Amino acid sequence: MLKFAATYVRVVDRVNYVLGRIMMYSLFAMIAILLWSTISKQMFVVPSFWTLEMAQFALVAYYLVGGPYSIQMGSNVRMDLFYGEWTDRKKAWVDSFTVLLLIFYLGVLLYGGIDSTRYSLEYGERAPTLWRPFLWPVKMVMCFGIFMMLLQAVSELIKDIAKLREVEI
């Protein structure tokens, strides 16, 4: 079982590391979209209606697919009032408890995201804007990001349990 857990942690961490690095550079795509929006409004006096929504969709991908990388690197927001002074063992106890809450929350989000994506695919749901893009692509990205974050949360739980058991993974 320990070998499976170590393999799981290694594979999930590696995949989320690569995805996180890719998403880090996708921020430039969002900048390019917003730059085009500004240029088209100033030079052509015709606003591009699609730019704001595309920038929002890019931000959703950046945030949700890059989120597991943030968790893996420990750069997520923490209340460090007491946490910084605790021992590694106490941190592992608290982290293992809070990651269980995160896993539950992500499970609920994934359930709702899959249901919403299914609805969007079934009925051809479109955004209620002038451009009216289909919503299923961004909802699929959302589900993928939540799923990867769920896998990373389980990886973090395994690492915390290993730290509590004083086992090297």
Automatic annotation (TrEMBL):
It is found in: Cell inner membrane. GO terms for cellular component: plasma membrane. GO terms for molecular function: transmembrane transporter activity. The chain crosses the membrane at residues 18-37, 49-71, 92-114, 134-155. Part of the tripartite ATP-independent periplasmic (TRAP) transport system. This is TRAP transporter small permease protein. Belongs to the TRAP transporter small permease family. Residues 30-161 form the Tripartite ATP-independent periplasmic transporters DctQ component domain. Keywords: Cell inner membrane, Cell membrane, Membrane, Transmembrane, Transmembrane helix, Transport. Pfam families: DctQ. The complex comprises the extracytoplasmic solute receptor protein and the two transmembrane proteins.
